[in-house]
User: What shape does this take?
Amino acid sequence: MALRELKVCLLGDTGVGKSSIVWRFVEDSFDPNINPTIGASFMTKTVQYQNELHKFLIWDTAGQERFRALAPMYYRGSAAAIIVYDITKEETFSTLKNWVKELRQHGPPNIVVAITGNKCDLNDVREVLEKDAKDYADSIHAIFVETSAKNAININELFIEISRRIPSTDASLTSAGKGFKLRRQPSVTKHSCC
Amino acid sequence: MALWSMPGLEERLQEQGPTRSLAEALSLPWDRFSAWLHCICVVGFDLELGQAVEVLYPTHSKLTDKEKSNICYLSFPDSNSGCLGDTQFCFRFRQSSGRKISLHCLMDQFDKDLPIYLKKDPAYYYGYVYFRQVRDKTLKRGYFQKSLVMISKLPYIKFFQTVLKKIAPEYFEKSDPCLEAACSDIDRWPAPCPGAMLNLPIMGVVIKVRIPTRHDKPGTTTQLIETTPQADVHISVSLPTIHEVDLFRCFSPVFLHIQMLWELVLLGEPLVVMAPSPSESSETVLALVSCISPLKYCSDFRPYFTIHDTEFKEYTTRTQAPPPVILGVTNPFFAKTLQHWPHIIRIGDIKLAGEVPKQVKVKKLKNLKTLDSKPGVYSSYKPFLNRDEEIIKQLQKGIQQKRPAEAQNVILRRYFLELTQSFIIPLERYVASLMPLQKSILPWKSPPQLKCFSQDEFMKTLEKTGPQLTSRLKGDWMGLYRHFLKSSNFDGWFRTRWKEMTRKLEALHLEALCDEDLLLWIEKHTEVEAVDLVLKLKNKLMSAVGEHLPVKPDTMPRLQMHIDSIISALPEDLQGILLKSDTT
Assistant: This one.
């Protein structure tokens, strides 16, 4: 069985739960008092998808502003980017849109993007409507999912969907259409966000 | 259909090999970092102070003023050699005396499994440098000049070069958060365990590398276990070697003299490399030191040495004969200071593989006067062995046929390896014969002594079992051995062998003792003698464990069983006392 190494990066504002998503996926555990990430942390997990093994090389980046300039190192060469926001904080969704723009401008051309609304267990204090986020994701041909790292909701599903969207090696040319369209579109990039 | 059956933990344990122990799981912040690096520093140029350490990571790492001063000078090109752009090189400096040498016990365990030429030298540090010099009109000096330097005890040249190449350009653009991120990556690396396939994530890529072990067959280049078809350097990089420099490229300016250089290094002759830049001086010195591998070069060597070095006076004094060291220098001042040195290699710019100078003769030392002397080897040394025309022809043919540089390098490396092995095998064979016979190892007597090394006896063995068995080279092999036996390389090699054999002898003795029926023995002896035996056995057990004696795996448990059964055969009051002393 073929083994493919797939670089995946997580982007998004500080405190939205990027590391918690990775911990849930890799270790199936949750720690409410996790420390802020420095630079980026790295983990791997191998899964089977159809007749391939996908080894995810996961770069979980720091959300803090001072590490912002380092992001290109982590999305360079990435097959997929998981951009995370917190459904209870409107401003984290704005940050997410900036990440989408940056990826469009500087990211790898066929990167699969997954828009991930984390903390869906906190529905009572929701600030971002599921429909709004879903519409936005559809408009950029991205995966959309609401997750809860705390209650293990949709975490595995997120990665299964990424596996599904990544062009298979034999048919990488034909199925590229499934990916996120990141052809340079200068008209969109100049505007400042929302 | 997707099957999600592989738990991540299991896989990561497997990746990190057997090294992930409890000790590692409990490691404190920076513990893992210090297994790889002592510190990372940034050396900049201050108009008033000159070179200065601007940043130090981790901030608590300790460097004495002397060490700092050495690092500052050694991290910058010392002459106006026009290193414009980015330059990488390496240096080596003495650890300040009086500093506590604290070797992590876990790391000692790793050192034991390393081939001798990769073992750490407790008295020295390596400095791996990435130096950038570019024009910048906004700065007073007109130039941006800065070095990112990694200080480590590990001689993993290729590896640290690769890591620095990844970190430094990012750092020069993005400053401190970048170093923080890099250090945090390194602090999560698995320990540098020989033999394991290591995956080392750094700044968005995974470096895959394997540290050789002493059990590897010399000359086998590291074969990577995992070879996923993938060429994207933004994802992962597989390093075929952690330490080897490109011998062919380094020696190409003096390629016709390689065999003579091998003799000079083998004999530990004082040797200086004068090069146009630190990267060339350091690569050439490292190539020289490694050309006698798997023998360890035992004297001091400085891939890059400056007039500001703490040891400058010690090494350049004219009141004594030049020390048996290899120095790499770039400052033209050394042409005069080291004029009295017996062997000088002068190299111009290292050319791209494929261009080799045509000149043949070794130059007379008196011709080396000034800075503008031509590249070449200056020495009055007469090699002991005849020149091997075949290797020269083979390499020259390769140049004509445009053989890839990697292939040329492999050919040259194999040539040196075979030459060194032909030379050392007779010594190995003779030294093995110094071991006492198995039947002379008796359980109730202390282990027999190793026989002494006798030069005459060794020389006698050469007639029948000398290097002529494995090498076609003719010449004065006897003379070469006679000189070698006086060198520090022989001394170092022999000490290691002696220590290994002594340990083997102790191990065999311990095994012999285990095979005895000790209960029968105590029946025939007094109680006092039995107690004495128990205490002795306990001591032996402790030191055998502490020194990792090469005993059969079941020896230790058997010894413990013996101790237990003797104790239980003793009167109860004694039992109490002997068991109690177990816990102290």
Observations:
- Chain B has a mean pLDDT of 85.
- Chain B touches chain A at residues 1-9, 11-12, 15, 170, 174, 177-178, 180-182, 184-185, 188, 199, 201, 203-206, 228, 230, 232-236 (CB under 8 Å).
